[in-house]
Amino acid sequence: MTAAPAPAQDLPGSVVLVGAGKMGGAMLEGWLARGLAPAAVTVLDPHAASDLAARGLRVNPQDRSTIPPPEVLVLGIKPQALEEVAPGLAAAAGPDTLVISILAGKTVANLLRALPAARSVVRAMPNLPASIGRGATGAYANAATNPRQRRIADALLAANGVVEWVEDEALIDVVTALSGSGPAYVFHLCEAMTEAGAAAGLPRELASRLARATVVGSAALLDSSGLPPATLRENVTSKGGTTAAALDVLMGEGGLPPLMRAAVAAAKRRAGELSG
To answer: Do residues 42 and 52 make contact, with C-beta atoms less than 8 angstroms apart?
Structure first.
């Protein structure tokens, strides 16, 4: 999926990206594809891709104090690294800077404590499909974030897929547990289907190919049909048939619904623990 260009007024004039790993790098590529000028971006990451400077981005300036407070500061580092990295970002987090954080569990209070000059904060949680422009991102803006800053945040986050806003910061931990971690649940489902097919007698490689194609095809159908998942499930289930027999197990006591509730609850709890 190619993201539609953002209106020019919704793209920031300057961005500092701290952390250009898998997720930060994917977000960066989405911004550039949407029309953000490379010269507007400064990347701070000792492991940044070697071609970024050649593409016109400013990469790891030796004297960070020369970086003026940007319009947007994006934190793409690991949550545990915030306290270590924050002192070196003081010059890049002024009172007019919008801070966008994708740090799981780190609250607005955590971020404002680490970056005391900052005022406006958006917490966002993208997921791995953002790397192919099919991400799902949940976002929350604090009260100091003005309407223009929220539009800018929406434009930057939407460069990698769907953006859904929540008005209660506590719900970001739920977003983290559901869609942020969710791709791993789907991948594990594919693993489990492969193992089940092999245990039932299929050659493992064949089971893997069939499981992968089934997950990919089902996701594409869910996306293109617009129908609720329950309707699609019912459409493929004949009374007394093989699918119904399998769903009796998956939907029964101890089946997928209670397991998924427990999994999401565990991820949400861990996100809360990461706030420190």
So the answer is: no
Closest CA to 261 of 188, 179, 177: 177
* 135 bridge partner residues: 161
- pLDDT tens digits for 208-223? 999 999 999 999 999 9
For the chain, the farthest-separated pair of C-alpha atoms sits apart, in whole angstroms, at 71
How far apart are the C-alpha atoms of 44 and 37, rounded to whole Å?
A: 17
Spatial CA neighbour of 115 closest among 81, 88, 141, 138:
88
Q: Give the residue ranges of DSSP H helices in 103-203.
A: 108-114, 147-158, 171-175, 182-199
In angstroms, the CA 203 to CA 194 distance is 10
Rounded CA separation 106/87 (Å): 16
∠ CA 42-47-48, nearest 5°, is 35
pLDDT digits (tens, 9 = 90+) for 236-252: 999 999 999 999 999 99
Alpha carbons 42 and 73: distance in angstroms, whole number: 10
